[in-house]
Amino acid sequence: MEVYLVGGAVRDRLLGLPVGEKDWVVVGATPAGLTALGYTPVGKDFPVFLHPLTKDEYALARQERKTGPGYKGFSTEFSPDVTLAQDLRRRDLTINAMAQPADAAGNPLGDLVDPYGGLADLEARVLRHVSEAFVEDPLRVLRVARFAARLAPLGFRIADETRELMARIVAGGELGHLTPERVWRETQRALNTSRPEVYFETLRDCGALAVLFPELAALDGVPQPAKWHPEIDTLVHTLLAVRYAADHDARPEVRFGALVHDLGKALTPRQYWPSHQGHEGLGVAPIEALSKRLRVPNAYRELAVLTARYHTHVHRALELRPDTTLKLLQECDAFRKPERFRAMLEVCTADARGRTGLEHQPYPQAAYLGHALDVSLAAILTPAESTGLTGKAIGDALAKKRLAALTGLKRIGTA
Q1: Same domain (yes/no): 324, 302
Q2: Residue 356: inside a domain
Q3: pLDDT at residue 360, as a whole number
Q4: Are residues 225 and 246 both part of a single domain?
Q5: Which end of the chain is more exposed for a tag (fewer CB within 10 A), N or C?
Q6: Tens digits of residue pLDDT in 345-378
Q7: 243 with 358, same domain?
């Protein structure tokens, strides 16, 4: 029995990146043999075992062959006769198809096993498919796009021949076999990279964006007023906003909010371009549709819808009267969910600064509204002020006190 550290752990160690989960492949073993050594079997589709001490996953070497459409159309062969090279061949990219003997902590114990040129591609900063079997799994289109986003800061690019295979998968309708859970899982992981916009640019370039994210693809080529958007194109602006959010270490739900905040602009009739009056409300339906289709978590969807509806109000915050500011806070449910409101301000900041040449422009609106929320939350009724009040009268008295606090804040803010 031979044990090898494979995939991402080998790749990241060679790149000098932190190594996360460790994946192991066992060659020349059987399920019974591993069980006898104290490994615990997990999974139903193929033999994977947990190490008795480290609890890392150890998988028997295997081969896969496509026998029909979708993920159910695969046959998998497990046998002590399957070689390490055969196991590595079924992987997506050459940089993920390297292995190395190692101890339980992942420390190298022997020479790198690299049958498909992964080390050369790693040094050349190239993402290249291992074999023609790449086309058998449509999820690889998203995985390559995600790796492109994750490794973009290191200068990686996708090989031309791999881009061609990705486009072939899309043109063949294979993406239709992907489950919503798989699409969202890759997208969520991509959103959490340092360059998430590269993920969506890659999907656009191979045609996958129009298939999986038609609401987003519809923004491509939609113009905006040059006065406010020097980049003109709405999709370009959207991805700049996502890039800004990532550059400032925003949470994934904030990055998602930046991604979809302007979907309503795709619904503006052409005769009104480049103006997009009313795009805020128009953007709610496509966000809801995308979120339902991909089963986006509620926290992501709710923040995105809130931002779509109110981002223009936030941009005009310094022009709002105190009573209008209070109304904005109330309609955004900011008093019950202050952290969500603050997250919306992060999305709005990314929107304001996700514009060519305006990445560092002042955006006092976010600080003002954040302070307005703090002041409003601090304006509570004293026991004397609430004596004798019930029901709606309590709410009215509290709103009146909050308005007084905001009125003072507004005077200070405009002095």
Answers
A1: yes
A2: yes
A3: 94
A4: yes
A5: C
A6: 999 999 999 999 999 999 999 999 999 999 999 9
A7: yes
How far apart CA 230 and CA 240 sit, in angstroms, is 12
Q: What is the pLDDT of residue 292?
A: 98
H or E element that contains 399: helix 392-414
Catalogue the long-range contacts made by 202-207 (C-beta closer than 8 Å, 24 or more residues apart): 202/144, 202/145, 202/148, 202/149, 202/158, 203/141, 203/142, 203/145, 204/235, 205/163, 206/141, 206/163, 206/166, 206/167, 206/169, 206/170, 207/167, 207/170, 207/171
For 300, the token pair is 């992501």
Task: Please check whether residue 165 is in contact with residue 172, taking contact to mean a CB–CB distance below 8 angstroms.
Answer: no
Length of the chain equals 415
Digit-coded pLDDT (tens) for 187-197: 999 999 999 99
The closest of 42, 44, 39, 86 to 61, measured between CA atoms, is 86
User: HSE on the CB side for 119, CA within 13 Å?
Assistant: 11
Cβ neighbours of residue 12 closer than 8 Å, sequence gap 6 or more: 18, 19, 20
Dist. CA 296–CA 293, nearest whole Å: 8
The SS3 call for residue 303 is helix
Domain identity same for 73 and 147: no
> What are the residue ranges of helices labelled H in 273-382?
279-282, 284-294, 298-315, 322-331, 338-353, 364-378
Same domain membership, residue 331 and residue 267: yes
Measured CA to CA, the distance from residue 153 to residue 132 in angstroms comes to 28
Tokens found for residue 72: 């159910």
Burial-class residue 159 by CB neighbours within 10 Å (0-12, 13-18, 19+). middle
Backbone torsion region of residue 245, taken as left when φ is above 0, otherwise alpha when ψ lies between -120 and 50, otherwise beta:
alpha
pLDDT interval class at 391 (50, 70, 90): confident
Task: Tell me the two tokens of residue 285.
Answer: 């339906």
Show the tokens assigned to 328: 């904005």
Residues 282-313 as b/e (b if ≥16 CB within 10 A, e otherwise) read bbbebbeebbeebebeeebbbbbbbbbbbbeb
Is the predicted pLDDT of residue 4 greater than 60, yes or no? yes
* Spatial distance between the Cα atoms of 309 and 375, rounded to a whole number of angstroms: 24
Residue 412 — pLDDT band, cuts 50, 70, 90?
A: very low
Q: Are residues 218 and 345 in the same domain?
A: yes
Q: Can you give the residue range of the structural domain that contains 46?
A: 1-124
CATH number reported for the structural domain that contains residue 255 in this entry: 1.10.3210
Residue 413's pLDDT band (boundaries 50, 70, 90)? very low
